[in-house]
Amino acid sequence: MKHFHLSLGALVATLCLATSSLVFAHGDVVPQAVDTTGLKQLGTDWQTANPYRDNKTAIRIGDSAFNQNCARCHGLGAVSGGIAPDLRYLPKGDEGDEIFLQRIRKGAVRDGRVYMPPFEGTLSQEAMWAIRAWLETVHEE
Questions:
Q1: How many helices (H) and strands (E) does the chain have?
Q2: 119-132: per-residue pLDDT in tens?
Q3: CATH number of the domain where residue 81 is located
Q4: 54: which residues sit within 8 A by CB, 6+ positions away?
Q5: How far apart are CA 15 and CA 1, in angstroms?
Q6: Which residues constitute the domain of residue 56?
Q7: How are the residues of the chain apportioned to helix, strand and coil, as percentages rounded to the nearest 5?
Q8: Distance CA 84, CA 98 (A)
Q9: How far, in Å, CA of 136 to CA of 11, rounded?
Q10: What's the whole-model pTM score?
């Protein structure tokens, strides 16, 4: 019986370590700076709708910014592998803008666990809207 307890204890410890690395996967990456040169500066008041929708410069910047800051959890091309939501299905237009902006600015915490860190104060409003402009180019119904 003692041998069983040691084996069970080792199994529990292994599972805890494996699970903890998955839980912290969302928060252990240093956000990368996003160069928004070429985009109209938006100031300090938050826009409620994407001012860069269909803007080619914003889409190019957003593609790079997504790959640097979001793809680790949301997948390359926004095709999620199951860790985080598949952002291709985020509604287009103002409805999706509202959902996107709330989540990227404030993040997501449930039961005290960080599922997505807040990016407000880390990424500029211009960078966030550029990511959103790119996301609309990969949208799927």
A1: 5, 2
A2: 999 999 999 999 99
A3: 1.10.760.10
A4: 133, 136
A5: 21
A6: 31-137
A7: 55, 5, 40
A8: 18
A9: 44
A10: 0.79
